[in-house]
Amino acid sequence: ETVLTQSPAILSLSPGERATLSCRASQSVSSYLAWYQQKPGQAPRLLIYDASNRATGIPARFSGSGSGTDFTLTISSLEPEDFAVYYCQQRDSWPNTFGQGTKLDIK
Amino acid sequence: EVQLVESGGGLVQPGRSLRLSCTVSGFNFDDFGMHWVRQAPGKGLEWVSSISWNSDSVNYADSVKGRFTISRDNAKKSLFLTLNNLRAEDTAFYYCVKGVGYPSAYFDFWGQGTRVTVSA
Q: Per-residue pLDDT tens for B78-102?
């Protein structure tokens, strides 16, 4: 099973700052990686798929990069609504797995 | 508008059973593989089970294999998950999720979830 490790566990930033979230895979997942955002009391929402493609309706301030084992989700300038938990997920190998999440907190 | 609405959750004793349902609208249900993903209280996401568009292929996480059964009714645009021999560790929100790709998939639309609590 491919283990995804996200860092940091908690990231405290202010609106307007740049956020950089990391996801590291225990083995190569090629580019088959997605990012999700989950706000309290809500279901997750797909942000990025295939490492760097934004899902429908996702603002351009969200971008993804990486391949193989190291991936990054970048939020260029944080809006108040971006403070949430972010998960990465791989679909390269079975079973598909999620990272443990990074909580993006308001500083 | 894509909508997925789960129902059937509740409080159940260990060893008992429950059947979750999900009714969908806004997309061609019988074109897509479907999945259940769960989230224990305060924890992360765990894929539970998936089913192909025509029910020919089903998959389960090791943690639920032999206890849970996934099924679907394309005519009724509905997805089901039967949970047998429930354990305390099955306590979670269960999300009905539309997949992109099968069996490996991304999850592009999610229901709001139904809560399952297993406790004596």
A: 999 999 999 999 999 999 999 998 9
